[in-house]
TrEMBL record:
Belongs to the CFAP298 family. It holds the Pfam family CFAP298. The lineage of its organism: Eukaryota, Metazoa, Chordata, Craniata, Vertebrata. This is Cilia and flagella associated protein 298. GO terms for biological process: regulation of cilium movement.
Amino acid sequence: MVQLHVKRGDESQFLFNTTVDASLETVIQQIASIYNGRLKVERMCAEIAELADHGITLPPNMQGLTEDQIVELKLVDEWEEKCVPSGGPVLRKDDIGRRNGQAPNDKMKEVLMKTVDEAKALISKKQAQANVCVIMDMVKEALDQLRGAVMIVYPMGLPPHDPIQMEMEDREDLSGTQASLQVIPEDECQLWWAAKEMQRGKKLQDYIGKNEKTKIVVKIQKKGQGMPAREPMITEEQHKQMMMHYHRRQEELKKLEEADDDSYLDSDWSDRQALKRQFQGLTNIKWGPR
């Protein structure tokens, strides 16, 4: 199997296994699906953490308003009584006014947060360091775990406008958000290797040869963004090790220089001719009047 180390910029994303005779069209689509799926998991994890702290999302027309403004405008959250967490709610006010403050109790919160940690671990960038390849089934498993936890805590479901519900139904609206800049649509996805764009109409072996044991670093890029920066000759960890070695060597040279200091040769006790001059009466000779 050929192993592709997928990066976005200089940041490692995940490992992907394929074969040299695989179509690049298929490889790019699979990599884009995994990449975007991981982003979806991360967005859901962030929102579920907010859900655990402050309850469901308020209707869009109530978000950001103070309690006085809500009363004055006579606005009512019709989903507050429908979407009640298991075991009853606990009041935890949302200071930014995005969620209703009817949070799950500590036991249900623990269920949500434990599942979030497990889902993050499945698609973590640390998997690449552990030489574990991320496949689409792992992304789906992480999403299923998150859906299951939300259903346990909110058996009546979430409001249709809640970002978590929208993510689960694949109708999330990311327009105008920072998250939208990270997503790469499959038809706009490009792979780069060795400063070359890997064209969709070709096979992987057209670029890397027929060795199935090849390992390469590829950069995922959005169409139109141009060629990504080339990989540095040494990694950040190698650079740190080189700097540490350099500083250790400098310290060693400094100590050696101090040990080789020959200024003591100017001292009287180190003069080899002192005894001879003393016998010859040539000590304490001064020129000029006394």
